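Narrative of activities, Objective 1.

The group set out to show that a structural description can be obtained from nothing but a protein's sequence at a throughput compatible with the screening campaign. Below is one input-output pair from the validation batch, recorded exactly as produced.
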Amino acid sequence: MARKLTVTADGGSRGNPGPAAFGAVVYENGKTLEEVAETIGVASNNVAEYRGLIAGLTAAHEIDATAEIEVRMDSKLVVEQMSGRWQIKHPDMKKLAFQARDIHPRELITFTWIPREENSHADRILNDVLDGAPSSAREPIQQNFLMERLISGEEPTTIYLIRHGETILTPARKFSGSGPLNPELTDIGISQAEAVAKEIVKLKPDLLFSSPLRRTQETAARISASTKLEIITQDIWIEQSFGKWDGMSVAEVSAEFPAEYKHWLAGTSYIPPEGESYDEVTARALEGIDQVATENPGKKIVVVTHNGIIKTAVAAIIGARPESIFHIDISPCSITTISVWPSDNLMALRGCNERGHLRG
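Output recorded for this entry:
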């Protein structure tokens, strides 16, 4: 009977890209068999996570080349890509994924996404090695890469993230996700969409993407009319799923689901009943940004999407803690601007929640 091993792995970058490390742990029946942690110089979070996966699989394979291995990671991106459900667009990620796939027989490996708190062992040892070098012996580690990029002459891809206009659920702050309710724009929402369309046409964008939900499609239609761009609809830009909470007010959710609501307020990994966690939305938002930036280098891209997508992307781009999204709110038909440099996908926030065009 084949041995059953569990690998947990994580990667972290302080700066994204910045000083990075990975950690991986191999277990059997709950007992730790091996720990692996190493600094890898300057790298992105995604690269560090893949390096952790490679280290964990390598360690498990060396223990038993015929074992069944369950890989458990809190990186939705890596789990979905390695499971074959998400495409791998970035060439560096492809190389690392191919390397990981060649370590152990693929039919013996399964991948499972876990909340961040269940991956604390791997997270702890990677942070230990990042903190481990004596400060007196440490050379200064570059963290500011943007300054060099701004004077390099390399043309970034510019992405304008537009939240849709107001719906009937917006003023009361009701949960409005990707569920079947799918509200349309109100008269105020239509006016907001027309105002942002007038602003966007001044930017002379090259492409227009949108979530498939009605409120984003109606907003994108106004932008399409002003820019003469065809709407490219992609599911990856859809709003977070709130599951059973969709359409409910905060008071209703806290009364009907008191325990679940407390967990949801306490962190980004909690999944509402039949819904989606903020961590999952973050991974999806970054996957969408990576995809459009890689496929359209140097272009100006408009994406009509949602509050959840935009605020999780902003937090990830500036390297803030995941919980920082609880201090970010994106207004209807505001503009959030990011730049992505094609050479290594360095991302920078250029503007957030701009709404001057709505004050006229």
